[in-house]
Amino acid sequence: MGKKILLFISFFSFLFVQTQFSYAAGRISGKVTDAVTGEALIGANIIIVGTSLGTASDVEGKYIISSVPEGKHIIKVSYIGYEPKETEVEIKDNQHIQINFELDVVSVAAQEVVITAQASGQNEAINKQLSSENIVNVVSSARIQELPDANAAESIGRLPGISLVRTGGQATQVVIRGLSPEYNQITINGVPVPSNESGDRRSIDMRMISSSSLGSIEVYKTNTPDMDAAVLGGTVNLGIRKASKNLSDKPLGFADMPAISFQAQGGYTDLTNEYNNYKLDLSFEKRYLDNRFGVFVQGIIQQQNLTSNRLDANYTQIARTINPDSLALTSLNLYFYPREEKRYNGTLTFDYDLENGNIALMNMLSQSKSNTNYYQQQYGLERGGNNVHYYVNESPKTINLISNILSYNQKTPFVDIDATLSHSYSENIYPDSWTITFEQLSVGTNKIDDKLPPVEIARLAHQLVDKEGLELRNVETSNSFLRQRDIRASIDFSKDINISDLLSVKLKTGAMYLYTKRNYDYNYGYGYVWFGEIGKRIVEAFPWLEEYGIKPETNERIFLSPFLDPDINVGTFLNGNYTFDNTVNLDYMRRIKDIVVDYGLNLDAAPTGGAGAWVPNMHSSQAWDYSGNEKRSAGYIMGTFRIGQFLSIMTGVRYQNLTTSYRANRFYNASASNPYPNELPHIDTTVTKTHGYWLPAVNIKFDPLPWLSLRGAYTNTLAYPNFQAIVPWIDVYTGSVRWNNVNLKPIRSENFDVQVSVYNNEIGLFSLGGFLKRIDDFVFYYSSYIIDPTQYEGLHNVPQYPNLNVKGYSLDAYYNNPNTVEVWGIEGEWQTHFWYLPSPLDGLVLNINYTHAFSEAKYPYTIVGNTGFPYFRPTYTDTTYTDRLINQPDDIVNVSLGWDYKDFSILFSMIYQSRIFNSTNYWNALRTDKDKYLRWDVVAKQRLPWYNIEVFLNLNNLNGANDTYLMRGNNFKDTDESYGLRAELGFRVNFR
């Protein structure tokens, strides 16, 4: 049914726009540039005075106004930061006239004003925001290229309504308007990036995308029917660079030589006092055939030290019924993460200018190879085991991303066409992850007061550690391979129709089809290390252990101290407040792991009774596997009605459909002993589901005065459940069930947005807006109990298990929240350039924004009780509790103050975030919040007088801010992670 509707919409709309009831076919086109530099001015506003006709210049400064009636007209061009310009033109029927505009920088009388790098970037962002039909925030190409950030996520981290998720101190994902990364969409040139998250969420790890490969970044806060509707918070569109048209004919004095840009930088990590960061960036670009054919090639090699120190604490309620807010610490974990990441990026873009059109092929390859090793010290207290564990982990990881995008756009006398065909592929590979455990039992930590702060507990617990008592205990291994491939095609038709001098309409229609294939394979093994045969092999591999008294004839355990490596540098651990001495040699542990695994793989069967040797776990190695595909299709029709130059109303509807078909394994005896090398009995299950929705939208833009713009939007959008929530998993254990609800529905959001903007050359841009989202069927995960098994697909009437009875079992599952979730907030920003002040203050550039967001969600909870005497039968009472959405901060403040003076630029920036809700629980005391966060950064650049050389310095996290999470019950630290200060010093050479 959905496909027929899509075909009908597209066919009918195409015929409609072909109907030429407009009496005019005149066309005006041209380019808007800076009168001095010749640089394209993006987002310039071009109007025909006294009519409803107008447009904005594109990324090359080009514009086209179609359906211009016969007669004399005045064309006016305006661009914040420049003096407006007008010219008169006469149009005859079917005539095509080309008019270029060169704008002069706004200036004070008798004072020459030069648009500096930061001011240019700000002007571009302001004008693109003002010209857009959507509520959008922009990071301009000038800002990206002039003041480089570590990655694309860092580049947008200071826009209104944006907070960042960080790993190793580096931004990896964006949270928009308090909605988690999986509820936002990341696109490259309008094409969605395939998910590369190992946790099976639909979010994107953005560190794969280098900011220096980008020509623009737009964050759309509202949707129109021609955009993919699978987004709750916003859409981040990353525009890949093309070969510039403002290039010298003879770079370095040689004809036909491409323009070359080279950047090299080295970096320092304060936490470990190391200088092992570097980045090399080389690009070539050239245009041929009278500037019609462009080639852009870029290669990037980067290494980053992302080392961090971390504390994790686990708490429990001491007396839930008497004092639910009183907490005790059960275990304390200290981590040292010596992360190192190497990243390789390559971009190859071809584009060819057609008459009133362009065809382009963009190819991007990105690879990240990292070792996220960690060393861990765990102290178990009275309620957590009275023990100490030292862990060593190695987790090499590779992420690959490939995108190929073929785009075609053409303006014809009949209809404008925009078509895209793309292929995207992503991989997330953990080839060999392992953990080795050393254990010390009955250590005496049960005598420590578990209500003390973590720092005091850690000090007391470490005094009880005995390196000779920490014994080699077990080996745990895993590997996984996640891959996703997307094939996407889309086509859009649009037509400008001039009905009268004061009324014109732009009709647009199109369709999209996306095919996704996704596979996940996971393998797991676990076992103990008894001395026996394995111990003998270890001693044979390390004969020097006998010097420590570890001999096959006399020992039953191998203890920790012989394997310590004094050369491992853990830095100043968590500001020097904790002692960390787990410095086990990684090479030794890797060799022990290989010995243990080799022994287990040669066993004929899994050991029975007691603690067995390492073997693959046949349940875990199949229970998490899945494969399948998704088919997403959509069609839309929309019209933008322009009434004079003051009012624009866009209205339309989109129909979007998703069909999912996933295969997974269902285990009804998951508690059974490991049957290695045989498979554990299971049912291979495939489930196919289809969901389709009509999504209406209305956007209004009203500009009553030359300096005032009012906007409003009503839209409907979706979010599809994460992959791990919809695959048909079932695990039935003794007394508990892990069950996936294959009937989960997409999340639906009804969105209301308003914004008022005041702007001119002196003010810059001041905007204030508000938003409200009413979200239905929000997906959440919680534990309850099975009262009626017939309510759960796959837990009753299973032919292979006729005696299955799970009544009363605990249940972990995903559900659609029956209660509506509301998210609302306000966003304000001010962008200005103080060009009118006397030198050198005229080089000041200010950006400041503030966001306040609030959400209210009801979370379900099942209270377990009993009937009391005499039978004490269990009772289950369903209730709810209320809190914010996870990852949602109340307040975000971003301030950046830049200054350009001649060839010197510097930018000071500050980001502040209030507490962010982090994890939910029925008991308020057990909920966690990320503590308020304040961070300072500085970026400076100096251009030298030789060969266009620039040197730059980035100082990140000047104040050494930590990521700290607090327990609500006692305000103690649940997590505390330190990254320290990071610095990069580099240079860039441009031969253009």
Automatic annotation (TrEMBL):
Residues 131-234 form the TonB-dependent receptor plug domain. GO terms for cellular component: cell outer membrane. It holds the Pfam family Plug. The keyword Oxidoreductase does not apply. Residues 1-24 form the signal peptide. Residues 478-958 form the TonB-dependent receptor-like beta-barrel domain. InterPro entries: Beta-barrel_TonB, Beta-barrel_TonB_sf, CarboxyPept-like_regulatory, Plug_dom, Plug_dom_sf, TonB_rcpt_bac. SUPFAM superfamilies: Carboxypeptidase regulatory domain-like (SSF49464), Porins (SSF56935). Keywords: Cell outer membrane, Membrane, Receptor, Signal, TonB box. It comes from the Bacteria. The keyword Secreted does not apply. It is found in: Cell outer membrane. Belongs to the TonB-dependent receptor family. PANTHER family: PLUG DOMAIN-CONTAINING PROTEIN, TONB-DEPENDENT RECEPTOR-LIKE BETA-BARREL DOMAIN-CONTAINING PROTEIN. This is TonB-dependent receptor.
